[in-house]
Structure formats: C-alpha cells, structure tokens
Write a structure and sequence with these properties.
This protein has ten helices and 13 strands. It is an alpha+beta fold and 372 residues long. Helix 7 packs across helix 10, helix 8 packs across helix 9 and helix 9 runs antiparallel to helix 10. The radius of gyration is 29 Å and the shape is elongated. The two termini are 53 Å apart.
Amino acid sequence: MDADPYVADMLGGLSADALPDGLVVADAAGTVVCFNAAAERITGVKAGDALGKQLADALPLEDIDGRRWWVCTDPYGGLGIRTRQPERNLVLGGREVLVTASYVREDGANSPVKHVVVALRCTSARRRGERNHAELIATVAHELRSPLTSVKGFTATLLRKWERFTDEQKRLMLETVDADADRVTRLITELLDISRIDSGRLQLHREVVDLREAVDRHVRAQIAAGQPEDRFRVKAQGPLPPTWMDRDKLDQILGNLLENAVRHGAGAVTIEMAGTTFGAAGPAADGLGGTGDDEGTEITVSDEGPGIPDELLGRVFTRFWRGNRRGGTGLGLYIVKGLVEAHGGTIDVGRAECGGAMFRFRLPAGMPDVLA
C-alpha cells in the first residue's frame, strides 16, 4: 500500500496502516495508489478493490443532497489556487464519513495537481461526543433548576414579607437557601473537575497525607450528619506507608465513596486499609498483576446492601451512571476514577463477601526525594 514514492516519502518510513485515520492517496492521473487499513474499516471498501481505480470510482462520495462530491469539487480541473477541502460530513454507500482532502501541486498555485490526499474519519466518535455534550447540558440544567428555583422562591418571599415571619421561620428558609447554594457549588465543582480530567489539566498539590486520619475524619463527619456510630467499621492492617498526594482530591475520593455506601447501600459500611505493592504493570495485590516493586496503600469501601448487578459493573465509572437510583448527576464515580488515576493509582468495583458493593482503590506511596 505504501509503494508509491510520494506516499513513502510523506510517511517518512511509517506504514500507512499504522495511522489511526483513513488515508487514501491518488496520483496525478487520479489513480488510487494508497488505501490504508483504517480506510478499509471506515468505508467498508477493500484495499485490493480500490488500488488502481480512479479516485471517484474507489470513493463514490456524495453530499447530503445526493450530489457527487468529486464532480462538485473537481480537484484536478477546478480552481488552480485551491490546496484543500475542509472537513465535511459526506455519505459513502449509506455510511456517513468525515472527509478532508488536500491537493499537492507540482509547483505551487495554478500548477497541475500531483497528488490528492484524502483523510477519512468515522462519525461515530463525533456523534458520541455530541451526545455526551447534550446529555451533560441537560443534566446540568436539570440539577441547577431545582436549587435555583428554591433560592429564588425563598429570597423573593423574604424580601416581600420579611416582617410577617418569625425568627425561626426566617432561619429555616435561610438554611434552605444556604444548602441549595452548596448544592450548586458542588455541581460547578464537578463540572470543573470533569473538564480538567478530560483535558489533562488537573492540577495536583501534593503533600504527605495520613490516610488513616483522613478516613477517620470522614467517618466522624458522617456520624455528625446523623449516621449511627456503629454503622462504620474501620480496619487497618499493619502500618501504612506515607502517601504523597493532593489532600483535597483525597477528600473528594473518600467523601464520594462513603456517601455512596451510606446513601445507596445498607447495613454496616466497612473501610479497610492495608499496604500493597505496585509494579510496572500495576498493583500486585490479590493476584491482579504487577511485579510488586513499589509500596502503596489499598483502601476498600464496602456495604451490606444489594450490591451492583454483574452486568452493570463495567458501566459504574462512566459518565451519568446512576444504576437504578434517581437523582444526582451520575458524575461522582467518573470523577473519582479520574482523580485516582491522576495520582497514578487504580480503582475497581466488585461484590463484597456479604453481597454488597465494594469499591477498592490503590494509591502509590511515591514521595519527593527530599522527604523519602
């Protein structure tokens, strides 16, 4: 597929089949001289059927109105100063394909076209991204509407009828406004976290943290919020290695997992902590792989509820996953996974011995040389 000298020179020795996008190249006569594996996958056309054919016959592209694209663009006889066609959504044999074309001319503007280079991309990834974007907007709008409606209603009522309410009634309404404002703030924080995780711009302010102290602090917060003290069981196996990580991000991870266990699980919530080892291939604990070269800590949060059905386990850390429950954005566990992985850790979900849900994450105990 890379026999044409121009194609070989363009790729610099790389095989066209190694490219993630479809690549089709036609020579000065319009004959297809390159048709890589990605082009086969995207178009459904075999390379053997395309090579040696005229470009318009190998790729009979049409626009959404059914017009033949090569006739409209006329790369070999069209405008002499044109060097490319911007990306367009075209149709090929019933398939939608994203197409970009570049015209390589012999000697600049108004000289004959030496090669036409066509890049092809499948529309499924773009459509999936558009659906995720639309779903995110719909979810955010829904989640914002309720607290903002409440805030607007209570503040408008207080402003109009302040003197008619007792101090206790005023306090109750203001506490509700305060709680709803916190809810909006949490949602905005989630959206910012998703943006930073997806774009790789998540900033970590690392310091040495005491994982046992952090777990105990979150358990005390749950008890202060009204949960019975005997609902929580904290177990630590041996001394834990000091962990170098972002304290606020650790609080997000623990807070989300504990809140999920309390709200959606049942019975006792067990938090287990133990030292583990990390290797080149990942954690070595429980036979999950790894060579056991580096220290780390494994934390497991489990409950005694009905657990998560096996067929849904693979979707738990995806966006908008809510299981069978209503309410919430469904973004919390997606963010937890991103935060754990940003620290070089791993997280998985399974079924606890008692049948409830079990979330287990592992964090390496890496420390800067000055503190190691």
